[in-house]
Amino acid sequence: MMTQIQSAVLQAEHLSKSFQIEQTGISVIKNVSLEVKAGEFVAIMGKSGSGKSTLLSLLAGLDYPDKGRVLLNQDDLTLMDEEQLALKRQRDMGFVFQSFHLIPTLTVTENVSFPLQIAGLVDDDRVDELLNAVDLNHRRDSLPHQLSGGEKQRTALARALVSKPSIVFADEPTGNLDEKNAQQVMDLLINLQQSFGSALVVVTHDQAVADRADRVITIVDGHTV
Ligand SMILES: Nc1ncnc2c1ncn2[C@@H]1O[C@H](COP(=O)(O)OP(=O)(O)O)[C@@H](O)[C@H]1O
Ligand SMILES: [Mg+2]
């Protein structure tokens, strides 16, 4: 098991990405290589517009790089089609976004169990475990619009971890929360990640979040520095 703890869950090699705007190609990610080890917590920092969200979407197989490759548990995401990527995301990844991305017509419980459901699984004990872990058992039948920002993001945390992903990606997960809720959500995210052993990659502006990471990667103008 020791070798597994040390092994890389995610390896990005020489990633480049441009966006075509009218006739001009704008280079947004420039030859970025990085590695995330199993169970490791990595923070990605950088100014607005430096390419953090673009990098995260390449790492998570939400978009394809122009050059380079991304290995998740040894599988090259850049060789997969959309369907294979969707399956890979279901099985191996969890996501937390700044704007929560909950399904508005589903209750808290249904949102949390959604990743299991689309994978054809039922695990009510696991859903209960997560609802308790984020202290939302008493809100389990509420709809997202009935929740505070902090409660919405705690629902999203439970959903991100319900299928025991090997890695969780979070893009400014506390960006829409006040300081108190931001602190609570980050505490929970780190506790959950540690107790379930998932790796965690968090894009953040918040130095307090970065201070708690095992490692900080800084992006300046599409490069790692
Ligand atoms: N789909 C897109 N089409 C064109 N330009 C984009 C697209 N996505 C991002 N960009 C540009 O890439 C740069 C980096 O964006 P982003 O990765 O969102 O930065 P960050 O998350 O660090 O604020 C910005 O200049 C942005 O305008
Ligand atoms: Mg961004």
TrEMBL record:
Entries under InterPro entries matching the protein: AAA+_ATPase, ABC_transporter-like_ATP-bd, ABC_transpr_LolD-like, MacB-like_ATP-bd, P-loop_NTPase
Coiled-coil residue windows: none
Keyword Iron-sulfur among UniProt keywords: no
Keywords associated with the record: ATP-binding, Nucleotide-binding, Transport
GO annotations of cellular component type: plasma membrane; transmembrane transporter complex
Gene3D superfamilies: P-loop containing nucleotide triphosphate hydrolases
GO molecular function, one term: ATP binding
Source organism superkingdom: Bacteria
UniProt family annotation: Belongs to the ABC transporter superfamily. Macrolide exporter (TC 3.A.1.122) family.
Protein name: ABC transporter ATP-binding protein
